[in-house]
Amino acid sequence: MGKQIGKQSIAFDKVVYILANTEVVGKKEKDGPLGDYFQNIFDDHLLDKKTWEMTEAKMQEQVSNKVIELSGLSKDKIRYIFGGDLMAQLMATTFGIKDLEIPFYGVFGACSTFGASMQLASIMIDAGLADNAMAISSSHYSSAERQFRFPVEFGYQRPKSAAWTVTGAAAVILGNESGAVKITGMTTGKIVDYGIDDAMNMGGAMAPAAADTIVRHFKDFGTRPGDYDLIVTGDLGVYGKEIACKLVNDEGYDISQNHMDCGVEIYSDKEQDTHAGGSGCGCSAVTFSAMVMNKFKIGELKKILFVPTGALLTTVSTNLKETIPAIAHALVIERNEVSK
After folding, report:
1. Cα separation of 7 and 304, whole Å?
2. Domain 13-175: what homologous superfamily?
3. What global pTM score does this model have?
4. How far apart are CA 177 and CA 208, in angstroms?
5. How does pLDDT run across 10-49, given as a tens digit for each residue?
6. How far is CA 140 from CA 105, 151, 164, 251, in A?
């Protein structure tokens, strides 16, 4: 089994491999800077469903079935599914994967859910409690807007600090058989609350949590920013990215030269009017599955620190004028130079 490292980390004894990955995104994501990386795109934001929520469930159904197909495994070889979304009771995930009849753990970490799900799946595999497990996550612009802010029909004005929820879903299958990419360690984040209460500034709320996890990771593993080709955060956006880099630098680690944020990369504000960038459970999930995994497979990346981030607010906490706690989870992901 993996061994405890420092205060919050685990180094895996058994290598956990990413055996397959896939994603699906909407038209806005396809029209963004990463459009050429995405494997599956749909133009109809309802996917023939009557509600946005069931559309998101359909997205999860599509990627879960597709990733199993790509892995070459039968579904009975998948021991567990770990996953979630932004909706209450994990509605998209529950309805999306129910027909697979695979043991399931629902995971909620807001926009960090994909990272948390990959961590839990990795722990099971490293511990010898599963040969293969799936991690899955999704978000949909319209379902998230309806739940957390206002229905899109309302046409409210978004401030420049607001992010645009990514319409997308991604799934990976992790296993103990050799693959092109492997997960070798992880750092579990803790809840960090800097007192920000503006629900339209989630990047600012999440940046301290991202910085806290990144710094903790460096201390636990005894590594430096230069040990990684990229340090990839989830959806801090343009403002959160700047704050996170400063907070990490204040602790003696300069990540400005190799830091990438999925929320910054996925949209072009100038062309798409997305303001601070992308957000949502699907943001880091589809960016990782599409662009990051592609760069691993062609040899452009050898080692990264993947740090999905999440703002743990709810409609109730927002209406109560409470602050926004946040969290970030980190995974060490490397290219397997001797893969089959």
Report:
1. 21
2. Stage V sporulation protein AD (3.40.47.40)
3. 0.95
4. 36
5. 999 988 999 999 999 999 999 999 999 998 999 877 888 8
6. 21, 13, 10, 36
